[in-house]
Recover the amino acids of this structure.
């Protein structure tokens, strides 16, 4: 059962998500060739601490870091390491979450390190577009399946595949709440969306096939065929006026005034 | 952080005890050893399981204590 959030709870989630996206902005600037992924993890940790937020992933089901950093064929859940350095031409996915006053923020994006291939650029653009296609479906009365359907349709129309083994999720007082939000499937199915629900929508899109496997560290997921993968995520609140991307200011002030 | 999709997982197990109502207590051969109570799914061809039988159990990742025996190994 997904919990509908009150206005004041949404404010807390807004603060958490704003911090997450602020940290992602920092990481994007710091993603230059030669940087170790551990340094990036430290950057995110320090940013959260400085702003009075708790890292959400550190210790979550035993996850050992603040940041998930997934390079090239790594899909999600890459663990930061002192040995791993970013290289020119890499695409690197940053996935980050924090807790503010008990409420979670969760967001991700994939960025280019130096100059990347046209294929990589197109993949990142497509994944981001797929995320926004999913967010567009976040209106009360629609269903969870409509989100996945929008994401899948957009990604596959450009010749890519979407990952099945990992899915978006409700978010609020825990990192993962019901319902699960797959990035695929038929529209018109699944739980009905109602105002006050908060969902983390996060397409993972592959250049090759959709299959992924998890490495021996029990976290890092990679594509089975070794092809590139990208990941974008935003936390969104369903409102009567439509989707509110929680890392942005409330977009329906005018509608609310005239309601 | 994406959540692992909530699908059934198949786990190897060993029947330890036959309980009433066609339930079995199955020791799961997973990394964190545990037991699940499981009933027999499917056509019933597996109905006569005995302690020691090696089976495959279908579980939901969020509740590894109850499952369904899907076949013998």
């Amino acid at each position: 059962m997904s919990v509908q959030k009150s206005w004041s709870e949404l404010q807390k989630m807004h603060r958490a998500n704003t911090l997450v996206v602020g940290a992602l902005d920092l990481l994007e600037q710091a993603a230059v060739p030669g940087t170790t992924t551990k340094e990036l993890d430290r950057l995110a940790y320090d940013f959260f601490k400085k702003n009075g937020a708790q890292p959400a992933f550190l210790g979550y089901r035993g996850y050992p870091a603040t940041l998930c950093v997934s390079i090239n064929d790594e899909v999600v859940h890459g663990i930061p390491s002192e040995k791993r350095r970013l290289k020119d031409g890499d695409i690197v996915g940053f996935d980050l979450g924090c807790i503010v006053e008990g409420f979670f923020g969760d967001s991700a994006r994939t960025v280019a390190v130096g100059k990347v291939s046209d294929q990589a650029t197109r993949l990142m653009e497509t994944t981001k577009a797929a995320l926004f296609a999913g967010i567009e479906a976040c209106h009360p009365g629609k269903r969870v399946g409509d989100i996945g359907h929008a994401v899948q349709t957009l990604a596959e129309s450009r010749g890519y595949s979407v990952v099945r083994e990992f899915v978006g999720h409700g978010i609020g007082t825990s990192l993962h709440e019901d319902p699960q939000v797959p990035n695929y499937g038929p529209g018109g199915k699944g739980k009905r969306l109602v105002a006050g629900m908060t969902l983390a929508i996060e397409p993972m899109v592959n250049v090759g096939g959709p299959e992924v496997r998890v490495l021996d560290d029990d976290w890092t997921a990679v594509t089975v065929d070794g092809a590139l993968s990208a990941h974008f995520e935003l936390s969104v609140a369903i409102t009567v006026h439509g989707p509110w991307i929680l890392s942005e200011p409330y977009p329906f002030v005018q509608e609310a005034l005239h309601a | 952080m994406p959540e692992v999709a909530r699908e059934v997982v198949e786990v190897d197990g060993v029947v330890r005890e036959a309980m009433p109502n066609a339930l079995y207590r199955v020791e799961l051969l997973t990394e964190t050893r545990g037991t699940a109570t499981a009933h027999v799914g499917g056509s019933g061809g597996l109905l006569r399981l005995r302690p020691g039988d090696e089976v495959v159990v279908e579980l939901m990742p969020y509740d590894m204590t109850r499952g369904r025996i899907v076949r013998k190994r």
Summary: Chain B touches chain A through six residues (CB under 8 Å).
